[in-house]
Specification:
The protein is of the alpha/beta class. It is 37% helix and 24% strand. InterPro entries: RNase_H-like_dom_plant, RNase_H-like_EbsB-rel, RNaseH-like_sf, RNaseH_domain, RNaseH_sf.
Amino acid sequence: MENAEKWLIEYLKNQPAESEKVPRQVVQWKPLDKATYKINVDATTFAGAGTGLGVVVRDKNGVFCCAGVRRTRIQWTSELAELQAIKFGLEIAVEKGFVPGEIESDCLGAVQQIEKEETSMAEEGAESEKVREMIDSLNGLMGIQFSVRESTRATHIFAHI
């Protein structure tokens, strides 16, 4: 965990000055209504080199609690990779006791796949069913929502490590 935080700090130090950046929509962290923890997840695929998964957990005040990074040699589709990141985030939340919580993903397709009642025969459908079962097993203590990438920036960085 300490290494992940050091990498993030180092990365942020080496970013261009604010005046050099292209203006973006301002996205601020939003406090949670009911959940105690916000679990941001992201995935990235590396052409021919596998997939990276990133997780950042913050408490209801936005204070950093923990981060996780996982690399695999498997080349998933972007939606399947994001479903794997969501599953990874759930695993960390349960293992470390970050429940109740809200998972945030910047992949609308993955979030919609999980929220569907019917199961698809595609690999994404099978994986979303596993994630749905994990969420359901927490008896209403975990939710999931779509969030724009700008609000999951730190997680996006971890997924690229």
